[in-house]
Amino acid sequence: MAGPKASSTAARPASSSSAGDSSAIQSLWRTYNDTTPSRLKLVDCFLVFLMLSGIAQFLYCILVTNFPFNAFLAGFGSCVGQFVLTASLRAQVNPENRAEFKEVSPERAFADFALGSIVLHFFVFNFLG
Amino acid sequence: MLAYSLPSDISPSTYVNAASLVRIVALGLISAAAISSRLFAVINFESIIHEFDPWFNYRATKVLASEGFYEFWNWFDPTAWYPLGRVVGGTIYPGLMATSGVIYNLLHALNLPVDIRNICVLLAPGFSALTAWATYMFTKEMKDESAGLLAAAFIGIVPGYISRSVAGSYDNEAIAIFLLMFTFFAWIKALKTGSALFGTVAALFYFYMVAAWGGYAFITNMIPLHAFVLLLMGRYTSRLYVAYCSWYAIGTLSSMQVPFVGFQPVRTSEHMAALGIFGLLQIVAFAQLIRSHVSSKQFQDLLFVSVISAAGLGMAAMVLLTYKGWIAPWTGRFYSLWDTGYAKKYIPIIASVSEHQPTAWPSFFMDLHMLTFLFPFGVLALFRQLRDEHVFVIIYAVMGTYFAGVMVRLMLTLTPCVCVASAVGLSQLIDTFVDPREPDVEQEKEGGDAAPSKQAAKKEKNAAPITGVGAIDDIVSTLSGASSPEKDKSGKTKAGIFGLDTRMVVLFNTAAMLLFFVLHCTWVTSNAYSSPSVVLASTNPDGSQHIIDDFREAYYWLRMNTKEDAVVMSWWDYGYQIAGMADRVTLVDNNTWNNSTRLTAGCAAHIATVGKAMSSPEEIAYPILRKHDVNYVLVIFGGLIGYSGDDINKFLWMVRIAQGVWPDEIQEPNYFTPQGEYRVDDQASKAMRESLMYKMSYYRFAELFGGGQVMDRVRQQQLPKQSPTLDYLDEAFTSENWIVRIYQVKKEDSLGRDLKSANGFAQGKKRKRSKPPVKRRALA
Which residue ranges does the record annotate as region Disordered (chain B) (predicted)? Predict the structure, then answer.
């Protein structure tokens, strides 16, 4: 998949200087933008949002209070759980992984994702208290 | 070239239909065998709850059935742990009761008004049939359907599992093994297909398992271990990520809904492996994602280093958190699995339970019979293929064997793995020897073998119909028959077996072994594992059965002849039975070993209090009894009929537990003779002879022998002719065979004297009165 891009990056010297790193990140970003289908980008946006939401809750817990601990766990758990379920969905619908998920079509993957999320949020709401 | 001919005019659909019919019939028969082999106790005795723990489960289920789920969930039981009471909702795993409650309501909705007791008694056999099915599904994922059927047949009747699931044994393990196997099946399925659906199913069954049994920690550590080993073997796939993360995210959140578990999944060390692997998988997955976008050596090195350093950092963070006390370290119960001397040294309550002893070799053979030696073979067979799911069974085998070696009780978790691995190994053997293909060497054999083969095949079918192996042979032979012509055309097979006689020898031996396995299982089940501990059975010389029913006699006496709120003190073994059968308030009960270390130090101290009262002289014990409002004291005494599980034999544990709390008042060495022997006869130590337990057990015992030799049939020792006397207690009830003795605690003396001197005064006065007439007579 990353074949054409690999040649351009592999040409650089292997030393991990800071200049090399920053350009590596740049090229990573470029490759990502070029090669990722748009629906996967949408999924990634959602993942970033979930991550930010989880970080915000965690900071609140550390800096302010963890008093209703079950509420914190429920909120944080819903972020983490939704994150990994979405990441699973991303892995399953990624065309690169077709060979790995022979039995899971993208539609089936989405149905699994929906079911998992419903179950997860049922427990989240039950645990909020 | 075929060793025996096969019918060639069968269409594939006929074959498929016949095979599935055979499978269904075999599974049905296996379920029937699993259920019926657990009914010995019900048929021989009656349909009652057996051991100690199940009596509490039964009592809780009765509350659930009669008052509904919300009442049960918020049930505060004031009759247990008398001054303290017990919040039942927060201190039990409610899965078992909820299951019976659902079945009860379902049957009543169908207008089948079954008593809740019968549901409780027959729950374990019913679920054993489901276990057989779950094992079938699990093994099917490992190899094929024929191995699955073998595994189902094994686990249906294997004594290692029957011992905890006979009818009447209404304990958590009854449903837990089914849930264990089904969770593992869903996990394997999720790993194989990479479907989040099966991950969710695994999480839901994990939740059910958490609600049902404290052994869920086994799953919590097995699945991460499997994932970790797969990572180390370089077998990371996105399927592993999907399966593990969907299981962990939903499973952990759901497991925290059980009140008894609470925040443990984020606070205790037992659950940290799962969390650590979860974090590690995120890092690995992210690294894989990046690698797929930019494949350069520079990045790979960078990422490799960062993955390892991130994993190291996470590990260090966990160690630090544990060290700082943010994460609770291992509880004593789990810790004693690693440091096997730990419990004996520090927590005598854990060590005092007989199930927590190391396992001896004979019990492996008794519980598993031929599976003991098929098991390593099966594990080896799994090694040779080593698919992802095989790694799971191998890890399970190693861990399970270790734990079963450390603790008798954990034989139960080993048994499913043994059945699965043995079935895989055995079915591989059968496959090899039923396969009709022969290695292509000579042509001349062909003619000679064709004629007797049909008879032989028929013989094989008849040889082992009992365990369902005959059916499996059929399937395998038909399968290989259907596929063999093309294979034979395509090329030579290099390895193989010549002739029918070699096949017959091996298959006949296998069938014979399976037959002996069935006989052994039935024998062990009927003889060793099907005796209710509530009723003691012995055989008369003429072979008829004599039933000793002292426990229920005494409990029923308590129920009928004492006040409703009377407090009964006994050793904790009998707490649940007293609460369940006698319906009286108890001081301590069997809910000790999961409370003592974690929940309240109060409970442990409470047991030690009872131990102290039992092992102290009367004058010291009496204030303790009065302080706790004890009305009756109940002791179990087997000296008359030789019932060895009585309180004198448990006495040393009481002493030890009391010694842990009051080391300067109770000392274990005081209860031994100067030679260091534990005796009850006239050489018994002073502390022993004065202890309340000794006095209560042997009170008036000498009278039974009418001046002859007083013999304790358990200890095989002669007792002094003079029975001990009691000043502070009155004998209230002694059962027919003197097994249960109940004493009433006297009220304080109305004149304010201590009871000993009051008693002495009363007796002395009588003596004075009776003396003068004798004198007068002598004078006259």
Answer: 440-462, 754-780
Task: Report which secondary-structure segment, H or E, holds A29.
Answer: helix A18-35
Distance from CA of B503 to the nearest CA of A (A): 39
Confidence of residue A66 (pLDDT cuts 50, 70, 90): confident
CB contact under 8 A, B196 and A73: no
Q: What is the pLDDT of residue B545?
A: 80
Q: Is B698 exposed, middle or buried (0-12, 13-18, 19+ CB in 10 A)?
A: buried
Return all residues near B653 (Cβ < 8 A) that are at least 6 apart.
Answer: B348, B352, B611
Map residue B408 onto helix, strand or coil: helix
Q: Between β-strands B717-719 and B86-87, what pairing exists: parallel, antiparallel or unpaired?
A: unpaired
Which pLDDT value is given to residue B470?
Answer: 44
Instruction: Quote the pLDDT of residue B94.
Output: 93
B225-240 pLDDT, tens digit each: 999 999 999 899 999 9
Nearest alpha carbon to residue B196 among A116, A119, A124: A116
Per DSSP, B678 falls in state -
B489-531 pLDDT, tens digit per residue, is 444 446 677 888 888 999 999 999 999 999 999 999 998 888 8
CB B293 within 8 A of CB A2: yes
Distance from CA of B91 to the nearest CA of A (A): 18
Choose the closest CB to B253 out of A2, A27, A124.
Answer: A124
Residue of B nearest to A5 (CA): B294
The mean-pLDDT minimum among B343-347, B544-548, B758-762 falls in B343-347
Count H helices and E strands in chain B, helices first.
Answer: 34, 11
**What global pTM score does this model have?**
0.86
Quick one: pLDDT at residue B296? 65
User: Are B60 and B72 contacting, i.e. CB atoms less than 8 angstroms apart?
Assistant: yes
What digits encode the pLDDT tens for the residues B345-362? 776 666 777 777 888 899
How many CB pairs (< 8 A) connect A and B?
A: 140
CA distance B177 to B212: 10
Spell out the SS3 assignment of B99-125.
HHHHHHHHHHHCCCCCCHHHHHHHHHH
Q: How far is CA B735 from CA B553, B564, B714, B743, in A?
A: 7, 21, 17, 12
- Which domains are seen in chain B, by residue range? 12-359 (no CATH), 551-760 (3.40.50.12610)
Looking at beta carbons, which residues of chain A come within 8 Å of B245? 84-85, 87-88
Residue B456: the pLDDT is 45
- Is B194–A70 a contact, with Cβ atoms under 8 angstroms apart? no
DSSP class of residue B596 equals: T
CB B594 within 8 A of CB B609: no
At B444 the pLDDT is 45
Distance from CA of A53 to the nearest CA of B (A): 17
From chain A, pick out residues whose CB is under 8 angstroms from the CB of B239: 100-101
Model pLDDT, residue A9: 36
Distance CA B614, CA B616 (A): 6
pLDDT at B478 over 60: no
Sequence-distant (≥ 6) Cβ neighbours of residue B739 within 8 angstroms: B536, B548, B550, B551, B554, B636, B637, B638, B640, B641, B643, B646
* Tokens 């509530």, located at residue: B534
Assign B318 a pLDDT band (cuts: 50, 70, 90): confident
**CB of B194 within 8 Å of any CB in chain A?**
yes
> Does A116 lie at the interface with B, CB-CB under 8 angstroms?
yes
Whether residue A73 and residue B263 make contact (CB cut-off 8 A), yes or no, is: yes
User: Quick check: helix, strand or coil at residue B426?
Assistant: helix
Query: 3-class DSSP state for residue B714?
Result: coil
Q: Say which of A28, A91, A123 has its CB closest to residue B290.
A: A28
